[in-house]
Amino acid sequence: MNLTELSLEQLCQGYRKKDFSVTEVTRAYIKNIEEKDGEINAYITKTNDLALKRAKELDEGNFDLPLYGIPLSLKDNISLKDVRMTCGSKMLENYISPYDSSVSKKVKEAGAVILGKTNMDEFAMGATTRSSYFGYTKNPLNTKLVPGGSSGGSAASVASNTALVSVGTDTGGSTRQPASYCGIVGIKPTYGSISRYGISTMANTFDSPGTMGHSVEDATSLLKILVGRDKLDATSLGNESIEKIDLKNLDETYLKNKKIAIPKIYMEMDLKENVMSEFERAIKKFQDLGGKVEIIDLPYLKYVIETYHILVNGEIAPNMARFDGLRFGHRTKEYGSIEEMYRKSRGEGFGKEVKKRIMIGTHILSLDLAEDYYYKALKVRGLIKRDMDMALKDHDFILSPTSPMLPFELESNMSSVEVYQADMFTIPANMAGCPSLSIPMPIKDGLSVGIELTGKRFEDDVIINCAHIFERSFK
Ligand code: GLN
């Protein structure tokens, strides 16, 4: 039996029957990391010693914990006490987190074994995991290709069986898009379902932690542990719809007569490679399972990318101000004045994409331009949200591909504006705070096309249940 190929449920059962111990499973995962991660580079920091220590405690302890002995990885923008947190940046190369994020605290208490911190685009800005200071992560399905991003290390750790499940973050698609590129499941719940306390902020009104796994069931089991209101994050609300999910007892006919909306502009796009044909196959499958598909007009969706980048950069610029060599982060060696210290520390510590976004953000927030850019974009966000809410009033969920393209070559010289297109289908859910997930179509020619379901706020159970039935229908 290969212990690193068991599902979450199979691991739980095996532990209960004493087929294997947590230490054995942890050792099997560490062995996989040692064998594969030199090439894949999913991890920035491996926590082997902590993992084995925890495994030993669990072997002597309590089986009843909900994530008992589950091997898990955390994106490296999530604080884990006494472990380095880099956010993929030279700025935080040597930063050791002095406290646990609420997410880390919850997975620890639930009995998970944390194997390490995963690679990511610098400060979660990107869709390729190429902007990390710690090198590219490779796509385990094909090591010449990008794994997606920004949570590319998390997706690659699951896809290469060097973690069973992973926690990522999603500001404009960073959990769903890498999940789709690596052929796994990624779930971003309703905004506010999970506490963001202790997670490095990119854009406060968009950010959400998300979960990844090989199946809807695995990703959901982790999600259930993470949701909940937290007094340390005033924007966290919890989410009862996730707590009540029961995939084991889900009615086979759950999808019957569910109303599914597809935005008309998505059908008119010239999608790359076999994204369109696989999307059409997915539509047919939903119809075979009893879903009622309707093409609807959502005119404002065509502005999502431009609107997103104005708003997100407007939030990024002030959030990045704390990394100044004084409060947080890298400090330059030589400087004559405080101003020079700031300038050189930030100049040396941040990479190109981060600097670009800080500059754009600062520019569009300046007194003369805020009216033309930032406030205008806020209004368009309102219109996009209204479009989505109207579609979701009459439908159970919106269906689309997760990304308009397949993973591209690691060495590709696509411009950053071309890469921004990768998030065109994922951003609307962040704009409107809706739950959204990516589920892989079966592998074809070595790759999988991700299919995205986006639902009503605080009705995450609907998309998760439907995705579970969809996934099962291929087995
Ligand atoms: N790729 C998007 C961006 O570059 C989304 C990033 C994210 O969700 N963290 O902003």
Note down, in words, how this protein is organized.
This protein is an alpha/beta fold and 475 residues long. It is 39% helix and 12% strand. It contains 17 helices and 11 strands. The chain has an 11-stranded mixed sheet with strand order 1-3-2-4-6-5-10-11-9-7-8, sandwiched between helices. The longest helix is centred in the last third of the chain and has 21 residues, at 374-394. It is globular. The relative contact order is 0.13. The mean pLDDT is 97. The structure holds glutamine (GLN). The site of glutamine has 13 residues, from loops. Residues 24-461 form the Amidase domain. It holds the Pfam family Amidase. GO terms for molecular function: asparaginyl-tRNA synthase (glutamine-hydrolyzing) activity; glutaminyl-tRNA synthase (glutamine-hydrolyzing) activity.
Keywords:
globular; binds glutamine; 39% helix; alpha/beta; single chain; 475 residues; eleven-stranded mixed β-sheet; 12% strand
Q: How are the elements arranged and paired?
A:
Elements: H1 8-16, H2 22-40, E1 43-46, H3 48-59, E2 71-75, H4 102-109, E3 113-118, H5 152-159, E4 165-170, H6 176-182, E5 185-188, E6 208-213, H7 216-226, H8 240-243, E7 259-263, H9 264-267, H10 275-288, E8 292-296, H11 304-320, H12 338-349, H13 352-365, H14 374-394, E9 397-401, H15 416-420, H16 427-432, E10 436-440, E11 450-455, H17 460-472
Parallel strand pairs: 2-3, 2-4, 7-8, 7-9
Antiparallel strand pairs: 1-3, 4-6, 5-6, 5-10, 9-11, 10-11
Helix pairs in contact: 2-3, 5-6, 11-13, 11-14
The chain binds glutamine.
Glutamine is lined by residues 124-127, 150, 170-174, 202, 312, 423.
